[in-house]
Write a structure and sequence with these properties.
The structure is a single chain. The chain has 295 residues and is an alpha+beta fold. 70% of the residues lie in helices and 13% in strands. It has a five-stranded antiparallel beta sheet with strand order 2-1-5-4-3, sandwiched between helices.
């Protein structure tokens, strides 16, 4: 009976080892067929052993005095179980070694992937740094060039503006000091530009006495004169006109002027020359001739 208990204990241990091998071989596909074959062989041996034990029990119950065959049977069964146990242990050790090797290979591959990832990451960071550095240099260079261009452009503009201002001052000086009177009249008959000669010819004290005022403001009733008719025709028909005109001022004084009227975008431009003295000389000449003819 002790022997049978021992046999049953070994059978349970063998079955547990086979189950453990199956669990281990779940991830080792190369040994799965070996474990299945070993499990099938173990099941056959255990089934056969169980049948033989049952048959032996029956035989020894009929002949209790026959102890020699039982001892032989015990040795045979123990040898079979020991061989099966050794085969299971060898297979288990082989599977554990293969799993350990597989884990080592997986770890090596994972380490390689991690190292490759770090290399790629470092390379990407290096490329990004180079790109950012180049872009920064290009932007700084472009900004520097733009600043230089702006500085040069400002200098050129300032130089050009000063030149224009100088020329404008020269032209203004020439206009202001011309012997002829100059005036620009707008479409609403306001004085836009006058020079010093025109101020003297019009019996005023300064340009401010005329600029911004209309001709009707300064000379009431001028719209009924022949002069205004000529100016109005030139303003509307945009045709130039040259003629002499005798103008009567509000204080009653008179003067002769030679007028040259030109249409301009702002209205009309009038260039006037004082012809009073010339007209007096001409009248004196005519008078003298008449006197000589009478005598």
């Amino acid at each position: 009976h002790d022997f049978l208990r021992y046999i049953n204990s070994d059978i349970s241990e063998i079955e547990s080892s086979v189950d453990k091998l199956k669990q281990i071989s779940d991830t080792a596909s190369g040994q799965r067929s070996n474990v299945d074959s070993l499990s099938s062989l173990a099941d056959q041996i255990l089934q056969q052993t169980t049948q033989e034990i049952d048959l032996t029990k029956l035989k020894f119950s009929l002949n209790a005095k026959n102890e020699r065959p039982l001892e032989i049977f015990q040795k045979e069964q123990l040898a079979t179980l020991a061989d099966l146990t050794n085969r299971i242990d060898e297979t288990e050790n082989q599977l554990l070694a293969e799993r350990k090797l597989e884990r080592a290979n997986n770890f090596k591959e994972l380490s390689g992937l991690i190292n490759l990832f770090y290399c790629v990451l470092v390379l990407l960071l290096l490329i990004s740094f180079i790109v950012i550095y180049r872009n920064t240099r290009a932007r700084n260079r472009a900004e520097s060039e733009i600043k230089d261009l702006n500085a040069n452009l400002e200098k050129r503009v300032e130089k050009k503006a000063n030149l224009l201002l100088e020329k404008e001052n020269q032209y203004r000086f020439l206009i202001e000091n011309m012997r002829e009177g100059i005036q620009v009249i707008s479409f609403d008959w306001r004085y836009l530009l006058v020079n010093n000669s025109l101020v003297r010819q019009s019996r005023n004290n300064s340009e401010e006495d005329l600029l911004g005022y209309t001709m009707m403001d300064k000379y009431p009733g001028i719209e009924q004169t022949e002069l205004f008719s000529v100016l109005e025709k030139c303003m509307h028909e945009r045709e130039p006109k040259v003629f002499e005109n005798e103008f009567t001022f509000p204080n009653g004084s008179k003067s002769w002027s030679e007028l040259s009227i030109q249409p301009v975008p702002e209205g009309i431009f009038i260039l006037s020359s004082d012809a009073t003295e010339r007209r007096k000389i001409d009248e004196e000449k005519i008078g003298l001739l008449e006197t000589l003819q009478k005598s």
